[in-house]
Amino acid sequence: MDSVTQIALGAAVAGVVAGRQCTPKVLLAGAALGTLPDLDVLISYGDPVSDMVKHRGFSHSLFVLLPFSWLLATLWQRLRPTDFTFARLWLLVAASLITHPLLDSFTTYGTQLLWPITTPYAVSSIFIIDPLYTVPLVVTLLASVLWRDRMAKLCGIGLTISTLYLGWSWLALNMVENRVDAQLAGTTLADKPRFFAPTPLNTVLWRVVVKDGDQYWEGLASLLDKNSEISFIAKDRGERPSQLASSHLSDLEAFTNGFVKYEQRNDQLVVTDLRLGMVDYLPFQFALAHKQAAQWQATDPVQLESPAVKPKHLPALWLRLLGNQDIDANLCHVSECPTSEMNVQVSSGTRQ
């Protein structure tokens, strides 16, 4: 999640744990602890692919944060003695730190909660910025500064509302998953890998990606749709060059669970993460190889500039969120809009 959210979450958690001993200084400490795991962005791993796949690694690991919280609590107690018992002080530090990666694991990007096991965990039920999660935390924290005798209670109210919203996001994800399962049952896509992600700033409109060999199917599903049938769009996914040996490409494929697109642009191999972004706005694109004399040669990774958002698509997205399914075709690039036959394969159900 974004830094503002993590700061607010850390402060709220610290306030709840502190209880009657909560003070503005406790909230500031919780805010600092809440954003501490993201300081790994200051570490360069040498190239953009490594920076991407290793972010939310050791600094977000429960195996690291638990002993680190004990060390911080010990130093805090010795250098700045407080009225807290050591057990409560350790709980405050640990909870403020650990809720950061736990929240991150609900996003699409993925979090290596069990590093050095590098498998990322991604529930993918909430966008990296969602005001409906953040605002209750911020409002109740500001109120707690004004009514200091109710600090812990107000922090608890904000944390409860945000946690309930997080639970709602998981429920909404399951509703969309069940809808897709029902539509694809008995079709050639029934057992294909699929990925779900909320569109920016909400948990009502969802993006669905189904991986199908050298192509993928992309669709939008709103919880306000009257028609449960999703209009999927078929797009070319390309193929991995069989002779190319690239550790960076392997790392990216593992990190995305294979949800990548391969494209040849001039003499470059461009690999795109299909999970993050939507339609034509897929920001994580990397040039990983160069073709010379009909052979692919791995090169140092270069992250390409993100495509600019077209303003004309923003009103369409809002209408689509409200359940207008007639504009699905307008949300894809003109050159990539599907033929009617491509839609029929999924919508009507080509049986196996």
UniProtKB/TrEMBL annotation:
Keywords: Hydrolase, Membrane, Transmembrane, Transmembrane helix
Xref: Pfam families: YdjM
Recorded superkingdom: Bacteria
A single GO molecular function term of this UniProt record: hydrolase activity
Transmembrane segments: 58-77, 89-109, 121-147, 154-173
Name recorded for this polypeptide: Hydrolase
